[in-house]
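Sequence, please.
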């Protein structure tokens, strides 16, 4: 009887088992490594955004060293005037238009629900006519 060769030898089976064990052993650390790299890149991006914000704030603080900018801001925000100057302030009132009422979707000029509710609560109650018996 001739010796019949098997399709899958013992050595090939052992090699496949060893390769599977190695793949399974390396899968978890590789996954952790990729997660950590993603976290590092996210933190690097967030750090760059915050550094940009810090630079903007430093520039803004640096403007306070400029006396002309400070004087201009005092004039604009606080309405300061230099001695001998005259300042004219005009009051403006917001004007309600028909388009504003149509855009808000309500009959009133201000379509926010809390303003409508407050206006309804603040209006005096109208007494109803009572029938006499």
């Amino acid at each position: 009887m001739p010796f019949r060769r098997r399709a899958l030898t013992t050595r090939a089976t052992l090699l496949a088992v060893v390769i599977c064990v190695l793949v399974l052993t390396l899968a978890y650390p590789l996954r952790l490594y990729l997660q950590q790299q993603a976290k590092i890149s996210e933190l690097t991006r967030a750090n760059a955004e915050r550094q940009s914000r810090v630079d903007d704030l430093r520039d803004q603080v640096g403007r306070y060293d400029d006396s002309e900018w400070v004087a201009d801001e005092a004039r604009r925000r606080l309405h300061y005037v230099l001695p001998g100057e005259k300042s004219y302030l005009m009051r403006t009132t917001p004007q309600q238009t028909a388009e504003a009422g149509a855009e808000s979707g309500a009959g009133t000029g201000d379509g926010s629900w809390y303003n409508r509710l407050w206006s309804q609560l603040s209006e005096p109650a109208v007494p109803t006519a009572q029938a006499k018996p």
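The helical segments are 10-63, 67-78, 98-104, 113-122.
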